[in-house]
Amino acid sequence: MASVGQPGELPSAGPPEVAFAGRSNVGKSSAINAILGRKRLAYASKTPGRTQTINFYDLGGAARLVDLPGYGYARVPHTVRAQWRTLVGGYLGSRNSLVGVVVIMDARHPYTALDEQLLQWLGDARTLVLLSKADKLSRTEQRHLAREFPDALIFSSVTRQGVEECRDLLERWLQQAAEIKSPR
User: Fold this and answer.
1) What are the backbone dihedrals phi and psi of residue 153, each rounded to the nearest 5 degrees, phi first?
2) Has this prediction a pTM greater than 0.70?
3) Which residue from 129, 170, 141, 140 is spatially nearest to 37, judged by alpha carbons?
4) Is the dihedral of CA 146, 150, 152, 153 positive or negative?
5) pLDDT higher at 130 or 48
6) Confidence of residue 6 (pLDDT cuts 50, 70, 90)
7) Domains within the chain, CATH numbers bracketed
8) Distance from C-alpha of 172 to C-alpha of 184, rounded to nearest angstrom
9) Going edge to edge, which strands form the sheet with 127-132?
10) CA distance linking residue 55 with residue 52, whole number of Å
11) How far apart are the first and last CA of the chain?
12) 139 or 7, which is more confident?
């Protein structure tokens, strides 16, 4: 629907939005593609820091998914990273149509200091933590991770593990937001 590089370019608030946040190269775009059942709707790259804009995906006028630039490691100048922080912070801090944030973390390295910082900043906002790239872990490692982080969803866009559960939860979020917006 739109790619935004400046806070003043944000599209008008409209239908409910779910944002996807996470470190650079953690799999945000791949998760969006898997959840929507599309192969290349959101561009996924092996190079960290490729997503430098906020990308809005319209879901038939009923909702939007929002792919945020990654935080953490990215081989870009500090000025560009500062611009990302302003852009993402402005979006997350002021968007009335935002109904939830999916925080994606690499299952092999979950809850880094930057991840914890984001979760603290989000505070009471509705969040779902996806531990992505689960296909790179053994079943034993996945079970251990599930016990250690019971509120997170083990996820793999490659094997589709956790995709249906995530899709179902996001549909409930969006449905609840639609019901609140237009009470009967």
Assistant:
1) -110, 125
2) yes
3) 170
4) positive
5) 130
6) confident
7) 14-181 (3.40.50.300)
8) 18
9) 2-4, 54-58, 64-67, 17-22, 98-106, 127-132, 153-154
10) 9
11) 30
12) 139
Kindly write down the DSSP assignment for every residue of 75-127, as one continuous string.
SS-HHHHHHHHHHHHHHHHH-TTEEEEEEEEETTS-S-HHHHHHHHHHTTS-E
Distance between CA atoms of 54 and 94, rounded to whole angstroms?
14
* Per-residue confidence (pLDDT) for residue 97, from 0 to 100: 93
- Residue-level length of the chain: 184
Nearest to 156 by CA among 131, 125, 184, 129: 131
Q: Phi first, then psi: what are they for 181, rounded to 5°?
A: -65, -35
Structure token pair of residue 95? 């968007």
Residue closest to 18 by CA, chosen among 143, 84, 104: 104
Say if CB 79 and CB 157 are below 8 A apart: no
Longest dimension (CA), the chain: 51
Nearest to 5 by CA among 58, 84, 65, 85: 84
Tell me which amino acid residue 18 is. Answer: V
